Amino acid sequence: MNDDMPSPSRPSAPVVAPILHKGVRYEQDMQSYSHGGTQSGGYLVAIDPKSGERLWMLKVYEVPSQDAAGVSTPGRYFRTMRLLPERDEIEIENEAGGKYIVDLKQRTSTWISGPDSVHK
Predict the structure, then answer these.
(1) Which fold has domain 19-64+72-113?
(2) Is 68 a residue whose pLDDT tops 80?
(3) What is the mean pLDDT of residues 47-72?
(4) Where are the domains of the chain?
(5) Using CA of residue 94, residue 98, residue 99, residue 102, what is the dihedral sign?
(6) Is the pTM of this model over 0.85?
(7) Taking a C-beta distance cutoff of 8 angstroms, is the pair 110, 60 a contact?
(8) Is 87 helix (H, G, I), strand (E, B) or coil?
(9) CB contact at 8 A, 50 and 114
(10) Which of 37, 82, 84, 81 is nearest to 62 (CA)?
(11) Rounded mean pLDDT of 35-53?
(12) Apex 76 CA angle, 75 and 79, nearest 5
């Protein structure tokens, strides 16, 4: 390998393990564009683990667009994802440090702390 060759300025999206809860697998949706998504990153998908069927998809957070500045938007992916004990909720932290709670019953996302494109 040539050390003088430039390397990508941005590493690959973090690998975040899926969560199995009450017979449904929840994971970061890396195929959201193929299913109606409008941005790179920021989507959670619920999947039936037996059939592989996508049950629903939720935009957890908005990824700020840089297109107006002439720069392609690289996406913003999950850094961590954890099921909150005794609750039907998942806490998600994105690469920028924004934290969100996803209510799995209501299929809603609430910003709780850190950087966010809406809560500045």
Answers:
(1) Thrombin, subunit H (2.40.10)
(2) no
(3) 84
(4) 19-64+72-113
(5) negative
(6) no
(7) no
(8) coil
(9) no
(10) 37
(11) 94
(12) 145
